[in-house]
């Protein structure tokens, strides 16, 4: 791992940025707290000390805000770009979208894009009603992030060699998709949450 430089932000020592696959939008830093005093006002206004509830809010935010934006939105973009490419790129005398090996990929991407969107909408609706569970959030996060990974991989395949070139946006979308299965709870942790809620009614 390489760190370019360090700096002090208030009472926090920050080394950044790490070089990483997901290069755009966010920098990732290693930080160490030296001396951290939290005033009483912060406890009241920022809910410090309410760890469990804060975590719950973080998960809700991940499902309501970040997944629709970064998951479904990226899938939509991948689908648009791939459909346009498949309809216009000609090989062996016809558009590659006419070959079943390509068209079925588009069908899968479109179906999974819709399914991810519906899972997120269902979770959002339950959140509005105050009935959203960890299971609802975990299913939306798990399916959305894994479907995005499959869509990004399919897109690279549809674009062929051009899918790997930095001249087109596919390479960046593919690279950025990988983190979604890791942050805001890895896929394994989401599966733990879903499995736990499946088992709970039958446990003695
Ligand atoms: C680019 C980037 C940005 C990030 N941004 C933020 C941020 O803004 N805020 C923030 O809080 N965090 C952030 N993170 C941290 C991120 O949430 C963690 O990387 C993630 O939670 C996984 O933790 P870990 O890396 O320590 O992996 P580990 O916990 O070491 O996990 C490694 C592997 O073991 C598996 N594993 C671990 N425990 C279990 C278990 N109990 N059961 C089954 N499998 C298990 C994991 O699923 C994973 O496959 C960021 C990470 C990256 C890479």
Q: Any chance you could write out the topology, listing elements then pairs?
A:
Elements: E1 3-9, E2 12-18, E3 30-33, H1 40-46, H2 51-88, E4 90-91, E5 94-95, H3 100-129, H4 134-159, H5 170-177, H6 187-199
Antiparallel strand pairs: 1-2, 2-3, 4-5
Helix pairs in contact: 2-3, 2-4, 3-4, 4-5, 4-6
The structure holds flavin-adenine dinucleotide.
Tell me about this structure.
Strand 4 (90-91) and strand 5 (94-95) form a beta hairpin. The chain is built from 6 helices and 5 strands; from the N terminus they run E-E-E-H-H-E-E-H-H-H-H. The protein has 2 domains: 3-37, no CATH class; 51-202, Butyryl-CoA Dehydrogenase, subunit A, domain 3. The termini are far apart. It is mainly alpha-helical. The protein is globular, with a radius of gyration of 21 Å. The chain binds flavin-adenine dinucleotide (FAD).
Provide the list of bound ligands, each named once.
flavin-adenine dinucleotide
Please identify, by name, the CATH architecture of the largest domain: Up-down Bundle
Note the overall shape. globular
What is the typical, i.e. mean, pLDDT?
85
The top level CATH class name of the largest domain: Mainly Alpha
Count structural domains: 2
Major β-sheet annotation: 3 strands, antiparallel
**The CATH fourth-level homologous superfamily of the largest domain:** Butyryl-CoA Dehydrogenase, subunit A, domain 3
Query: Care to count the β-strands?
Result: 5
Question: What's the arrangement of strands in the largest beta sheet?
Answer: 1-2-3
Oligomeric state = single chain
Order of secondary-structure elements: EEEHHEEHHHH
Structural class: mainly alpha
